[in-house]
Design goal:
Layout: E1 2-5, E2 8-11, H1 18-24, E3 31-32, E4 39-40, E5 53-56, E6 59-63, E7 74-76, H2 91-95, H3 113-123, E8 152-153, H4 157-165, E9 172-173
Parallel strand pairs: 1-7, 8-9
Antiparallel strand pairs: 1-2, 3-4, 5-6, 5-7
Amino acid sequence: MRFSLNGRFASALPGETLAQALLRHGPRPLARSIRYHRPRGPFCGIGQCTGCLMTVNGLPNVRACQTVPQEGDTVRDQNAWPTVQHDALAILDRLFPAHVDTLHGFRSPAFLTPVYQRVVRRLAGYGEIPSAKVPPSLFPPGSDGRRMCSWSVGVGPAAASRTLSRGPYLPRRCSWSTGGGTARHSPVTSPGT
């Protein structure tokens, strides 16, 4: 499989994830930390961390350790400029070796506080809002893409009640293999469960 990585062609073996393909060609950071722009690589390999977030086909925050590239995919680094290997904002790590105190620091002179806040907000985020139309394959079944899809996180009584109140299709996400949540420890009744 051939795909584009930051404008250059890269290849992946069949069934190989993006992270595996990129690391097979040699060590390289896959992402930068959000605050200090320190280099990050895949940490967990199961999609539970933010060590390998990339933009794939215009969709930000795709986990490279869980994504198998398709022929012709366009993959870009994110949270780094110009590239993850040579990030200009890595200078923040040297300017603030201990930590950046965004709560008490950046307060004087007072007239510059709004400017400081805008800069900190800009630096404190992963990815960008996609400029291209999101592909229909990412919408839940039966959705036309015009309504917001909400998620129920967890599978306890509260999540189950919320799921049933929102209609026939509301995806649930939980890392446990079985449901229950607080109901495992104390019997709680919830409408519709």
